[in-house]
Inverse folding.
């Protein structure tokens, strides 16, 4: 059992290493384009819903805590508490996805999905993008949808993993001697949460100091 646990843990860390390299490439692209289009990124940041993004940040931080508690009680084979904390983690993850869905729909309804084209404020109201910033804001929005969309896909995968773990816990699969799946899945969940903690300030708070007067 110990050998299987070590092998699984190493495998997960190797997988997470490839994920770090993947997201690292996206963060590098963000850095390059932000340096190239600073005004567009500032304007684009103001188009995002900071309260919803902040709420989702709190939701994921709480989910990391509940996931850690699930891992902790799996080490003692406490079936009820493992199921409880994994279920709460799942509900928090689904809450994140629901909030993100409404946020995406609001962007689409406001014609802020870059593939749909952006419009001048004189014809579309407060959400219109000035003509001189059309290209740079479109770049920002592409990066926003790409990075948050890929993160959402990872959240959906994580939700599937949690459902599997909950069913396994219900069947009494986890004991003091065997709890590796919970611990390994916990590493994945924490990684996804950490990625969002980086995404939130980079995307949502880029122009906060301008709007907040700081």
């Amino acid at each position: 059992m110990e050998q299987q646990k070590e092998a699984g843990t190493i495998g997960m860390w190797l997988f997470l290493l490839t994920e770090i390299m993947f997201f690292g490439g996206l963060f590098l692209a963000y850095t390059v384009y932000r340096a190239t289009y600073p005004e567009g990124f500032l304007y684009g940041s103001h188009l995002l819903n900071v309260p919803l993004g902040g709420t989702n940040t709190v939701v994921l931080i709480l989910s990391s805590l509940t996931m850690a508690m699930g891992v902790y009680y799996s080490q003692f084979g406490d079936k009820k508490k493992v199921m409880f904390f994994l279920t709460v983690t799942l509900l928090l993850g689904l809450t994140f996805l629901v909030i993100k869905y409404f946020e995406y729909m609001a962007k689409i309804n406001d014609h802020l999905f870059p593939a749909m084209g952006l419009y001048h404020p004189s014809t579309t109201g407060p959400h219109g993008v000035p003509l001189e910033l059309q290209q740079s804001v479109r770049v920002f929005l592409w990066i926003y949808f790409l990075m948050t969309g890929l993160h959402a896909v990872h959240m959906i995968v994580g939700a599937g993993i949690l459902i599997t773990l909950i069913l396994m816990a219900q069947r009494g699969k986890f004991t003091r001697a065997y709890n590796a799946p919970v611990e390994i899945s916990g590493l994945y969940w924490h990684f996804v949460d950490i990625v969002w903690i980086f995404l939130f300030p980079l995307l949502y708070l880029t122009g906060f100091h301008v709007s907040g007067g700081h």
User: Anything to note?
Assistant: The two ends are 55 Å apart (CA to CA). Residues 2-208 form a domain with the Four Helix Bundle (Hemerythrin (Met), subunit A) fold (CATH 1.20.120.80). The first helix runs from residue 2 to 36. Residues 122-126, 209-214 have pLDDT under 50 and may be disordered.
